[in-house]
Amino acid sequence: MLRYQARAYISSIRLLSQTSFVKFRANAQVLGKFKLEQDGHGHGHGLQNGSRNGVQDDIESPTSMAKDSSLPLVEQKYKVKPRQPKKKAPFLSEMEDDPNSKLSSWQEKIGQWVISTFSVDMDKSRSGPVAGGIYFAECKRQALVYPNEPMSDTAKFYYQTLALPISFSQQVQIIILHYWILSVRMRALPSKYAKEYQKKLVDRIFSDLETRMNTELGIKSGRIIEGYLKDFHTQFLGSVLSYDEGLMTDDITLAAALWRNVFNAKEDADIRHVEALLVYVRSQLYVLSKMTDRAFGFGKFKFVPPDQIVTPITKHQEAMIKQKTKEEFSEMNLPSQRSVLSMDE
User: Model-level pTM?
Assistant: First the structure.
C-alpha cells in the first residue's frame, strides 16, 4: 500500500519534471561563485581532492568546510536511546551480493533472442536493475553503519564531521536525500522512463527498510513495522517536496530544508555544517547535469565523496565527456544493450 502511494506521488509531480531540470542545470548557485581552475592547456578540472593541492584557496570540499567550524560539538541527548542493529542483513540481496550469480551462456543467448524477437523496450526494463539495484545501492551505502565496524569515509562525514546521531531513522533521512538528488535527474529523462526509474527506486527503498527492520532491528510485529513505514513515507513526501521547493527557489530555502530534515531542525545545529551539506548537494546536482541521458540511464553515476571538490567544467571538457560516452556505447551492440536515450543531453 505504501509503495502504491509513493508511486502515486511520483505521478503527481511529473508536471515539475522539465521545469525542475531546467532550473537545476542553470542554478548551481554555490558553484557559480567559484573561478574555474585552469591547467597548463587552459582546461578546467572537474574534480579536485580535498587537500587543495593546486586549487584556489576559496574552494573547499564539503568535509573541509564542515571542519572549518570553530563551534564545539554538542553531545546528543536522547529521550529514548536509538535502536541499534542486532544482526547484519545482506547489503542488497543474497543473489545480488553473490558474485557467482551470473546467467550461464545458454541462458544469456536465450535472453538476447527473446529481447530481439519481441522488441523488448530495454530502457524500460533496465530501470529495474539500474534504479532498483545500482542507484539504490548508491543511496543506501552513503550513511550505512554497524556497531563495532569501521565507518566508511562518507559515513564519517555524516556522523563524525556533521555530528549527526547514529540511528536507523537518521540513515533513512540520508537515504531520502540521496533519492531526491537522483530523482531530479530521473525526472529529466523522457517522461516514459522518468516514472519507471523513480518507481523502481522508491519500491526498492521501502522494501529494504521493511526487511531491515525485521532482520537487523529484530522487530517481529508486522503492525509495528507498518507503523514505522507510514512514518517514513510521510517523511519521504515532506522531504522531497521541501527539497523541490529549495531547488526551484534559492540556496537559503534548500538549506532550510536540509536543516529541518537531515539536521532534525536542531536549534543548536552548526550553520557551517548545514552549508557544507548544501555544497555537497549542489555538487552532486551539477555533476548530474553534465551527464547524458544514456550514461545516467545505464547507471554510470556515483555520488562524489564529500572530501572531493567539484568545480565547473569548460564547454570543451563537456564535449569531450560526451564524445567518450559515445565511444563507450558504440561498442555495445547486443540486443540487451539497445537504447533510445540520448548521448547528447
Answer: 0.84
